[in-house]
Specification:
The chain is an alpha+beta fold. The chain is 31% helix and 32% strand. It has 3 helices and 6 strands, in the order ααβββββαβ. Strands 1, 2, 3, 4, 5 and 6 form a 6-stranded antiparallel beta sheet that branches. β3 and β4 form a beta hairpin. It is globular.
């Protein structure tokens, strides 16, 4: 199973936004909707946290460890726009 490295910053943002770390882990580990953000050179996973659509950018280390950077709420419209504008690549 892929190892996930949790940063203090992500824990802080999750606590601030009242997101459950268990659900975040499930999204990062098993999320099917993934994009490459050409603006930040990071991978992004999109998933549902309760009724909120969230986006979690993350880095992958050389040994395959996933390091989520932050989490924030988003909209389907924002994701679609980023795909159409070629900021997000599938």
């Amino acid at each position: 199973m892929t190892e996930i490295g949790w940063t203090d910053y992500l824990r802080y943002r999750a606590r601030l936004r009242k997101f459950d770390m268990t659900i975040i882990e499930d999204i990062v580990r098993y999320g099917n909707e993934r994009y490459f953000d050409t603006s930040t050179d990071r991978w992004v996973v999109v998933g549902k946290h309760a009724n909120t659509l969230v986006m979690i950018p993350y880095d992958i280390t050389e040994n395959g460890k996933i390091i989520p950077v932050t989490i924030h709420a988003t909209t389907r419209r924002q994701i679609n726009y980023r795909v159409k504008s070629a900021r997000f690549r599938i």
